[in-house]
Fold this sequence. Notes:
The structure holds 2 protein chains of 2 kinds. Chain A has 2 domains: 19-320, 3-Layer(aba) Sandwich (Rossmann fold); 321-353, no CATH class. In chain A, 46% of the residues lie in helices and 9% in strands. Chain A contains 14 helices and 7 strands. Chain A has helices at residues 27-52, 66-73, 89-94, 104-107, 116-119, 130-145, 163-174, 194-197, 202-208, 221-236, 266-273, 277-288, 293-315, 335-349; strands at 81-83, 151-156, 179-185, 188-189, 192-193, 213-217, 242-247. In chain A, the strands form 2 sheets. In chain A, strands 1-2-3-7-6 form a 5-stranded parallel β-sheet, sandwiched between helices. In chain A, β2 (151-156), α7 and β3 (179-185) form a beta-alpha-beta unit. Chain B is α/β, with parallel strands linked by helices. Chain B has helices at residues 11-25, 49-53, 65-77, 96-103, 106-109, 139-143, 156-168, 217-230, 248-258, 273-285, 316-326, 333-336, and strands spanning 7-10, 29-33, 58-60, 81-85, 119-124, 149-152, 173-178, 185-188, 201-204, 209-213, 235-239, 242-244, 261-268, 294-298. A 7-stranded mixed β-sheet of chain B has the order 3-2-4-5-7-6-12, sandwiched between helices. Chain B has a 5-stranded mixed β-sheet with strand order 9-11-10-13-14, with helices on both faces. In chain B, strands 1-8 form a two-stranded antiparallel ribbon. Chain B is 34% helix and 20% strand. Chain B has 2 domains: 7-188, Thiamin diphosphate (ThDP)-binding fold, Pyr/PP domains (Rossmann fold), CATH 3.40.50.970; 201-332, Rossmann fold (3-Layer(aba) Sandwich), CATH 3.40.50. The chains are: A alpha/beta, B alpha/beta. At the A-B interface, α5, α6, α7 and α14 of A face α3, α4 and α5 of B.
Amino acid sequence: MFLQLLDENGTRHASPEFDPLVADLTPQHLLGLYRDMVVVRRIDAEATALQRQGELALWPPLLGQEAAQIGSGRALRDDDFVFSSYREHAVAYTRGVALVDLLRVWRGVTASGWDPHEVGMATPQVIIGAQTLHATGYAMGIKNDGADSVAVTYFGDGAMSEGDVSEAMVFAASFQAPVVFFCQNNQWAISEPVTLQSRVDLADRATGFGIPSLRVDGNDVLAVTAATRAALARARAGEGPTFIEAVTYRMGPHTTADDPTRYRDSAELTEWQGRDPISRLAEYLRAAGVLDHDVDTRIAGEADAVAAELRAGCLALADPDALTIFDNVYAEPHHVLERQRAEYAHYLEGFAE
Amino acid sequence: MSDLAPGTTTLGKALNRALFRALDDDPKVMVLGEDVGVLGGVYRITDGLQARFGANRVVDTPLAESAIIGTAIGLAFRGYRPVCEIQFDGFVYPAFDQIVSQLARMHARTNGAVTLPITIRIPVGGGIGSAEHHSDSPETLFVHTPGIRVVTAATPQDAHTLLRQAIACDDPVIFFEPKRRYHVKGEVDEEAAGLPMGAARIARPGDQVTLVTFGSLVPTALDAATAAADERISIEVIDLRSLSPIDFATIEASVRRTGHLVVAHEAPQTAGLGAEIAATITERCFTYLEAAPVRVTGHDIVYPPARLERHHVPDLDRILFGVDRVLGRVPARAELA
Lengths: 353, 337
């Protein structure tokens, strides 16, 4: 069971507890979320294509997780801070990360596509679950500062088995830190199903740490928005951490290097395609009278324009200068590294015309 | 704890005063660790700090080393300057991933946008007759990790000055505390500028053998130099202080005068600091060397039980044996085979 406000057919279900949290979302607002989801799915498809064409080294697709990421990301304030995994491209999009900046790391031209302080989102984390501790520490700092912003950390069902995630929940509970643990349960950690990670619902795990939890339909952007707003409100009010399990599905491969046909049944994908996060909202918006063929065509055109901009930006990314590999290893001068840099520069000069 | 004006104090109290001054000078400095608050640390290095600065700044954490470092990283993102205590050297390994994969890399990962001015204090080394995991010398693991600095102190003055420098440094710093020397006494001037953090110190001048060591072995090396002087052997003792980066210039200048190099450390020999120093000095000073450099180190063994640790940790006699070897007064190792 989970919180669901918009079912897979686009039917709205009332919730006395959560409806007030999304009462301000008019059909026009929801159309904005719909546009977001269409655009990030298009970004994702374009990035996958760019990888297939050899322009990106790797890409971890978010296909199927648009509602979980847009619904939560759009609920945040500018002064909140996100510590995510590597699949949260749509969250980065909601933080205002420039399109081409989404691809820099995956093209292999830099270690970070953006300045974390500028967008309020750390560089995506590759080590599974490690970022949950950073979010918890950041939240401890917020509390010490007496501020009412919130640290939000994104991770997956696989991360729930990592010690760092358990330790983060221990610290968050002990210090009542204003952090939201946003777990996207997309059912698969590469080839391992969530049933291998846990014998209970992931949301139930949080209870043992003394952290209230919510289990929501992660493909229902309205439910995700409501749950995230509830968690943020608790944190801002000084009531400590909240755990959200957004039940969703990774429709694509783990990354472009993965072949999910080796470990999962195509019938499962078909079943989840029936719960698609975008199509159910489209149904709802059509019934509400704000989405028709013309609007849909316009949004698709906007998404195509975004994809074209993304592609052009990607192709324009040049390799950095060789000696930049020595930059930013240390913040302060380091004579051993400076010597190595000088030696390598001298070596490279030997090849100059 | 009373203010300690310039005068004699223990190395442990010099550290305590450094933490006090750092907390007092900068409201962004925090202390985090197990038992650092109410108890004042198992070695009392943080004694009195929580009472003075409050539980929000001197934080007793749950028992999770990875989380102590991981949350410090988040605090540093938020603008704080955390000082973490890892209770014993052998307890740092659960935090290894957060140190190596996160702390050391974040500045580079963010193209310099994020600095993590985090100090990790770790009591290090053996000789205290303790249980397993309380006597390790893991410095090489961190020296081999780009992105972090590693320092250690041998005197109360250096302990005080280096710790304050480490906390002020914008890079992550591992600060190894010579735990069996916590009680040694010496003069401490809290206002002294001291050497830069990365500089080695000539602990005793000499002109026949350069003996490089650090931390707890520095007093042992000085005793060895005194004993050798009775036999008219002049040893220059260099206290490294900074293990990463290594102040090779100071060692080079010494070896060019002495022509003989001995490096002593407690950690196992293979790929240890002795290997790095011997290799680099051989590369840079080959024609000045009159003999192959000699390492006097712990063995490549799991740290032994307390009643046997004297066979592992180099002592005065083993250091003197190393000096004899580099001077050709005993058969070289190859000839022993």
